[in-house]
Automatic annotation (TrEMBL):
NCBIfam families assigned to the protein according to its UniProt record, in alphabetical order: PRK11383.1 (NF008482)
Record field: transmembrane: 16-37, 49-68, 80-99, 111-127
Top-level taxon in the UniProt lineage: Bacteria
InterPro entries per the UniProt record, alphabetical: YiaA-like (IPR038972), YiaAB (IPR008024)
Keywords: Membrane, Transmembrane, Transmembrane helix
Protein name stated in the entry: YiaA/YiaB family protein
Residues of the YiaAB two helix domain: 18-70, 81-133
Length: 145
């Protein structure tokens, strides 16, 4: 017979490879988007629009990740902030989509901006998760000592 044991799940640390891949994806997506803007033959206000959408998207994606994680860990998050975070992510995707739809760019350029935008948002979420996991694991190690 197997004795019943009550064990708490062991939190696994994020691998260095995943942390490195997350940062590489974030830097690659961010750099590609901005290098593309720098080299694009468009008005400065249009470049500013796309840059602002990217920065707003990064903030919104990190806010969603933090809100979801806080709720999972029992940290209070208001429904208003949680909702605004999700609306902001969807709004940035819509703003980029409308901007690219109406832009006088080739389809390959539009696809490039869309893909580098999505890569950057996803990588920002992964980097935020890794940062939060490493802070959480360092706190739990302090309590074990």
């Amino acid at each position: 017979m197997n004795p019943q044991t009550t064990s708490q799940p062991v939190a696994q640390q994020t691998s260095a490879a995943f942390i490195g891949a997350s940062w590489a994806a974030l830097l690659t997506g961010f750099a590609a988007f901005n290098i593309g803007l720098w080299n694009a033959e468009m008005a400065i206000n249009e470049k500013g629009y796309y840059f602002t959408v990217l920065m707003y998207g990064l903030f919104a994606a990190i806010s969603v990740q933090k809100s979801v994680r806080d709720r999972l860990e029992g940290i209070p998050v208001t429904n208003l902030y949680y909702g605004i975070s999700w609306v902001s992510v969807l709004l940035t995707v819509a703003l980029l989509s409308v901007g690219l739809w109406n832009a006088t760019l080739t389809l390959s350029e539009k696809g490039f901006y869309a893909m580098s935008f999505v890569l950057t948002l996803f990588a920002a979420i992964a980097v935020q998760k890794n940062t939060r996991d490493s802070l959480h694991s360092s706190k739990s190690e302090q309590f074990r000592d």
